[in-house]
Amino acid sequence: IFKPALTVCVQALGYMSLLGNIPASLKELNALSDEIWYLAGDSAVDFSWYTKRVSLAAVYASSEMFMTTDTSTDFSLTEEFLERRLKDVQNVGGNVGGIRQYIGFWAANSVNLARSWGMKV
């Protein structure tokens, strides 16, 4: 039932991946990611604005590529793939936040230790 639409999707992905079309394809992917975050209510104005959009674009593009080879009923394997990628992004985001907190903790401790030794920091 989805074969004609899937064939068109595969052809579109092939066309978008041609060297001359890559800049326009990336521009459209960026616009799509930005629109999705906007509609989701994102109002970030810090560095996370960029990381959210890049992460979403990567998940979207990889899911779309996976879908081109999915032969399951109603693309159930693609849905599972998408859920795994979203969990991966959440895990990476949590780990990056933890690393930032760890570095911040040790930086603050180092400054306080230097001050306790009489250093002007």
Note the run of SSEs as H and E: HHHH
- Count of extended strands: 0
Report low-confidence residues grouped into runs of 5 or more. none
Mean pLDDT score, rounded? 82
Provide the gyration radius in Å: 21 Å
How is this structure best described in words?
The structure is a single chain. The protein has helices at residues 3-16, 22-39, 48-67, 76-116. With 121 residues, it is mainly alpha-helical. The chain is elongated, with a radius of gyration of 21 Å. It starts with a helix and ends in a 5-residue tail after the last helix. The mean pLDDT is 82.
In short:
By secondary structure, this protein is mainly alpha-helical. It has four helices and no strands.
Features:
121 residues; mainly alpha; 77% helix
Write the layout of secondary structure elements.
Elements: H1 3-16, H2 22-39, H3 48-67, H4 76-116
Helix pairs in contact: 2-3, 3-4
